[in-house]
């Protein structure tokens, strides 16, 4: 009886010791990344590589650029992945909390306008896209397509991609039509566009595949060359924001895009190197 | 070891309880009662706290922006500059999918409950009820995924035929029932038996043809419909009705079972048929329970977030025309879930507080409907007990 109890107690003690050491390890060697779903694939690939190489655990969550900024400000992540620059309001909020956000450019991303593969439209001008999203053009016939009402798909207000789209295409301060459908990630926009004949949506270039068709904007199709030399009009940088100048393993992580291996991973994911 | 044998000894002369044991029992009783009271009080306090904290963050919105824009405008641009917080279309969307799911789920749920409790033999019911209740165990995100990936493309590609078949399958039994009941009612006053039978057959044929025509005509209209976008109010209503069904079926079936064998047998003894027993005796007797089931199911549909966020399209518009279930809509719950992300420090406090205003509105709606159902249940009980 007593022997058994001692055995149990010992087991418990060993277990406890393990948890304590594990927790201590986590506190020292973990990088927490939160933010954009667009930057997500880069962050995740980097994380896997980084953990393998340096043995540092990296956790990545994708909750939107806005949430990433919030997490950095609240101190619940060490790197905020963002597909847009921080807004003045966010920087102000960070300062009052004693956080000093520093932008580090990871890569460049073209925002691809996508339609269903069966849609005959090959390209639109920026003004036409803007009119479609403002609800002025509502039928594909008006832009050289079939006679069908356009199903406009946008991202939710939390998305950096949405902000970039508004800034680069629709125009700042433009009200997107109330009939526009809202999806919460690049993946769900792609799934909606690939299954809806008369849909139009926008995706980070890294998310485009065969299930949707890219259309040219102002006559230019997005690819590595046009994004890099800036001829594609809807191009934006992707960021890793840190609190102050990074140091230690966070610094190593942030500098991954500058290494050859980092560059290879970025271009494999469909993004364009800095 | 010593303890156990002591217990053995006590059991042999059961009526003698030692003083020590009595004290232990007393303490245990007080502690047990106290704990139960604490738990019950805790639940009540939680509800009050939720109300308080939601209201505390909702009030500033109305102080900043007033009431009129929120309840009368359909312009929902919380992230723009200047921001607009017209939630009318969103409130409308919530009510629309709730009503839509109720229209589908309530008749089906109550019919299934009647079938389970009074028509199917016990051996089948034993298996059927747990299977229906399994629906409640499916996580809502799985429902949402199904709605987005399976149902939405299906509605877009084969929407018309699908609507036609749904119309035929769902409405034809009700039509048949209506035809029979109607011709029964119209001929029941005629005394002469031969004439009554002749007229009865005539009415059956007449109404039968009329209903077949109606089924066919509406079916062809539905067949011709082209659904533009599959993430719409109809899609969400269908999925929400599936989610509300297990609650409605299970609780209504319990209510029907609670009516009791004596009342059923009394009805049969008076010469009533099974249909008459169900419609005129059991259903009225169980109506308060069924109503509670319906309200519970509807509340489930109103409060559901994940499915709606994934499959409603999230467009803040009132469909045109207003009853068009084939357009995308946006609901209160999905808006709260979707906009919470960057709603605090970025664009000022109104954007944050408006979401709490929506939460408060949802709370008030469910509070009022719970209150109404409670009143109806109490009144029903009074009527049934003959006071």
Describe the structure.
The complex is a heterodimer of chains A (274) and B (387). Chain A has 10 helices and 11 strands. Chain A is α/β, with parallel strands linked by helices and 274 residues long. Chain A is globular and about 75 Å long. In chain A, 47% of the residues are buried. By secondary structure, chain B is mostly helical. Chain B folds into 2 domains: 2-62, no CATH class; 88-340, MetI-like fold (Orthogonal Bundle). Helices cover 78% and strands 1% of the residues of chain B. Chain B is built from 13 helices and 2 strands; from the N terminus they run αααββαααααααααα. In chain B, α2 crosses α13, α6 (140-187) crosses α8 and α12 packs antiparallel against α13 (349-384). The longest helix of chain B has 48 residues, at 140-187. Chain B is flat and about 75 Å long. The A-B interface holds A 63-67, 69-70, 73, 87, 89-90, 93, 148-149, 151, 156-158, 173, 175, 178-184, 188, 191-192, 195-199 and B 74-81, 89, 148-149, 152-153, 156, 228-231, 309-310, 313-317, 327-328, 330, 338-339, 341-342, 344-348.
